[in-house]
Amino acid sequence: MLLQLLDYLGVAVFAVTGGIVASRKQLDFIAFLFFATLTGIGGGTLRDLLLGVPVFWVVNEAYLVVCLVVSVFLWFFAHWIERFNKPLRWADAVGVSAYSVMGAAKALNVGDTLLVAVLMGVSTATFGGVLRDTLAQEPSSIVKSEIYVSAAFAGAGSYVLLAQFGVVPWVAAILAGSVAMILRGGAILHGWSLPGYGHRRRP
């Protein structure tokens, strides 16, 4: 049940980020719906296609309803949400945390290997945001120096590791999601980043 809730949460929160971008672009409602839906289901769609399982929103249209509800809400209240400090980045952080766990969990549930599960967690957590930023012609968080993909990797990796030690799935999900959220939150608040490649001199 918790993993199902995380799946809905990931869709809803990523849909929020898509709607916020649409509001900043001053787009019409259909564009709101498009951005919210594409961002909300993008990562999960990639995950399911790669895993070779039925795409989740085709099987259960409730996910599309979630995106519709989010779009309607943001159409009226996006300007109010913008009053909060960095709403887009924080919503994206919650989505990354939830989806990194859900992507890894689904891969394990269908019997894939540990490395594949981690990769599915990272892909699920980041692909929707990449689609959103690409279509909006905005710089993507994935290419910024601060921790982003690393947070998704830590969340997915933590869940896989805890699952291998027999930790109860809902406990593992909470712990792993918290790891991702702490890392991404630190990046937002304090600019946490890992060492970059830098400039290398040729011999």
UniProtKB/TrEMBL annotation:
<dbReference type="GO" id="GO:0005886">
    <property type="term" value="C:plasma membrane"/>
</dbReference>
<keyword id="KW-0812">Transmembrane</keyword>
<keyword id="KW-1003">Cell membrane</keyword>
<protein>
    <submittedName>
        <fullName>Putative membrane protein</fullName>
    </submittedName>
</protein>
<feature type="transmembrane region" description="Helical">
    <location>
        <begin position="114"/>
        <end position="135"/>
    </location>
</feature>
<feature type="transmembrane region" description="Helical">
    <location>
        <begin position="171"/>
        <end position="192"/>
    </location>
</feature>
<feature type="transmembrane region" description="Helical">
    <location>
        <begin position="62"/>
        <end position="81"/>
    </location>
</feature>
<dbReference type="InterPro" id="IPR005115">
    <property type="entry name" value="Gly_transporter"/>
</dbReference>
<dbReference type="Pfam" id="PF03458">
    <property type="entry name" value="Gly_transporter"/>
</dbReference>
<keyword id="KW-1133">Transmembrane helix</keyword>
<feature type="transmembrane region" description="Helical">
    <location>
        <begin position="6"/>
        <end position="22"/>
    </location>
</feature>
<feature type="domain" description="Glycine transporter">
    <location>
        <begin position="5"/>
        <end position="78"/>
    </location>
</feature>
<feature type="transmembrane region" description="Helical">
    <location>
        <begin position="29"/>
        <end position="50"/>
    </location>
</feature>
<comment type="similarity">
    <text>Belongs to the UPF0126 family.</text>
</comment>
<feature type="domain" description="Glycine transporter">
    <location>
        <begin position="90"/>
        <end position="163"/>
    </location>
</feature>
<keyword id="KW-0472">Membrane</keyword>
